[in-house]
Amino acid sequence: MAIGRAKIKSVGAAQSPLLGAAMFTPAVLYILLLVAGPFFLAIFYAFSDARIGNTEMHYVGLENFRSILKSPSFRIAIRNSFIFTICSQIVVIVGANILAIALEKTFRGRGFIRFLILLPWVAPIALGAIGWKWILDSIYSVISWVLVALHFYKPFNAPMWLGEPHLAIASVLLVHSWRLMPFSTVILLAGRTAIPKDIPEAAAVDGAGFWRTQFQIIIPMMRPILSVAVLFGLIFTFTDMTVVYILTAGGPFDSTQTLPSLAFAMGIQGSDLAAGAAISLFLVPLLIIIAYFMLRVAHRAEVN
Amino acid sequence: MAVVETRSLTKVFKEGELGAVNSVNLETREGEFLVFLGPSGSGKTTLLRMIAGLETPTSGEILIGGRVVNELSPRDRRIAMVFQSYALYPHLSVYKNIAFPLKAQKVKKDLHKQKVEWAASLLGIGALLDRKPRELSGGERQRVALARAIVREPAVFLLDEPLSNLDAKLRASAREELERFHRRVGTTTIYVTHDQVEAMAMGDRVLVLNKGVVHQLGTPTEVYDNPADTFVATFLGSPPMNLAELSDVIVGFRPEHFRPVSSVNGEAVAFRFKVENIEYLGSEWIVSGTPASGKLGGQKVFSRLNSAQDLSLGGTYDFAVPQRELKFFDRSTEKRVEPKVVSWQ
Fold first, then answer.
1. Do B279 and B195 share a structural domain?
2. Among residues A66, A140, B102, B248, which is most buried (max CB within 10 A)?
3. Which chain A residue lies closest to B107 (C-alpha atoms)?
4. Residue B272 domain-assigned?
5. pLDDT (mean) for A19-31
6. Closest CB to B81 among A199, A205, A223
7. Size of interface A-B (CB pairs under 8 A)
8. CA Rg, chain A, in Å?
9. ipTM of the predicted structure?
10. Residue A27 domain-assigned?
């Protein structure tokens, strides 16, 4: 052991300055070019009047922020970002817990069912969203077809899932939840299996029923892993624009716009780079808070 | 009325395979300390888990307090169990761990504090109530697990190898403490172990199990001095009973009864004994070797002596076993039979 370690050390010592640098350069380059660069560029643009197709650019101070804050679309986008993120997390955590409890027991076909549940996570998000766009389509929707066939609605009178503001919000929420459920289920399943079987058995002998065992023993014991699932879910939903962009493109009347989709709509599609950059900067404070909690969870996991 | 009773209790895990527990009939006595003793895989833990309600029997009945409890969930059986790992709730303080059964059994809230403090003082952990389980030593955890078991005053205690996670030194004192605790509360206790020393030291009675079958149920002296069959004879005692096949019977004798001929009085069977190994264990010596002639010739035999300083490796000595210490077993059933006259030559 001692000999082995010494050997490795000497090899490392001879080559360390160059080799070490060479090994982490790609990572540093990646972060600089694709994360730090765009981030500082966004800050730079946010204080300017940069537009697509215009080479000139002037410093305008807080003007972009002032006009954004006045815009009703922006307020809706902020509200939606929080609604989508928080509500879908609630749906996902409740649903994923139920699925994890169900999948913990061994039964025939469990492997196949686990595979099915994981599918939404494996499939590219754009493809999944396009699939949902058809399921929720105003004319071809299978849901509407079933509801009509069951005589809940008259033909051609079924709800426009993506065409009415409230239904559109609910639809986007549903697709976000569908998308995140597998990820949370897998994490929670791992968390559950990590709890020794003795613990729920002791609770059963101590007189606890199903609900008390779940809420007072199992779920509190899973708190660290639960927070990992929630924090990842928050980030995924808060920064996602694919689902909204494909399903509704922010419509109808900007009612499903979120911060990322509005930034894209204003900055890229509307050519107002400065406004897009300013909008996207509003994501930063929340992401910093989430990142802080993630680091704390990671640190605690290390300490224990 | 027996506190716990089982009637032809059987558990088969996989159809067609041998049962983990096979047709066990058992009756505890009020307030006794009953030990399930057996090697690993003997079914002792499965038997205990069926009594607790954590395992469903394949057939047979379990009665607690005269009532068939097969269909009752663990919480309705008035039992308390201490697990091998203690299974303390890691996110709860010691106080909340002990109070959990009270909460779960919907005991009135204003009684909690008083009952928790009673249980904690009984086990001397009153100062640890604010700690989390991970801040406790192994022995302290065991006491918390016991306090959590006693707090709701159950009809039966079920203990599943509660000492096996402690180091050897702590184990002896924890054993003593458990005995004292049992004398104090007087609750009927079933204790599972694979350690014969624990079984002999603590049990009022010992149930010896192997491969899911009960081999003997008796007091420690009964199972040691009068083993019901060759399994019990060899499982208890270290080194185990010496066994010799003589025509149609198996004859057994304990190592402590196989001694130099000069220290044996009365009618005895004598051998020429070649010493091949001597172990000094402090208070005693374990001598092993082979009888030089007769039916036992070439077979390894153990002797336990207070002193073996007169013996030397490779030497041959005159040893003997008192006639009254010989145990006889049927050669085919391996069960105990009446003493017979046998030829040793």
1. no
2. B102
3. A207
4. yes
5. 91
6. A205
7. 60
8. 25
9. 0.84
10. no
Check pLDDT > 60 for residue A12. Answer: no
Span B175-206, pLDDT tens digits: 888 898 899 889 999 999 999 999 999 999 99
**Same-domain check for residues B87 and B160:** yes
Written as six digits, the tokens of A5 are: 């370690």
Cα B239-B244-B247 angle, rounded to 5 deg:
170
Same domain flag for B176 and B254:
no
Residue A14 DSSP label: H
Asked if B53 reaches chain A (Cβ–Cβ under 8 Å), the answer is: yes
Average pLDDT over residues B100-124: 91
Whether B50 and B125 map to the same domain: the answer is yes
Which one-letter DSSP state was computed for residue B19?
P
Assigned domain for B233 exists? no
* Unique residue bearing structure tokens 């640190």: A299
Q: Domain limits at A174?
A: 70-303
Chain B environment of A206 (Cβ under 8 Å): 75, 80, 100-101, 104-105, 148, 152
Which helix (H) or strand (E) is B321 found in, with range? Answer: strand B316-322
Cα B113 to its chain centre, rounded Å, is: 36
Nearest to B105 among A198, A207, A216 (CB): A207
Instruction: Please indicate, yes or no, whether residues B316 and B285 belong to a single structural domain of this protein.
Output: yes
Same structural domain, B23 and B134 = yes
Q: Count how many domains chain A has.
A: 1
Q: Is residue B254 part of a domain?
A: yes
A218 in contact with B, Cβ within 8 Å: no
Point out the domain boundary residue: B166, B196, B225: B225
What's the total number of domains in chain B?
A: 2
Which is higher by pLDDT, B39 or B17?
B39
- B78, B65 in Cβ contact below 8 A? yes
pLDDT at A301: 66
Domain that holds residue B184: 4-225
Whose CA is closest to B244, among B293, B321, B288, B300?
B300
pLDDT, one tens digit per residue, over A50-106 is 888 888 888 888 888 899 899 999 999 999 999 999 999 999 999 999 999 998 888
Chain A nearest-CA distance from B177, in A, is: 22
Q: Does A163 reside within a domain?
A: yes
Tokens of B158: 């079920």
In a domain, B235, yes or no: no
Residue B145 to residue B240: CA distance in whole angstroms = 34
pLDDT at A9 over 80: no
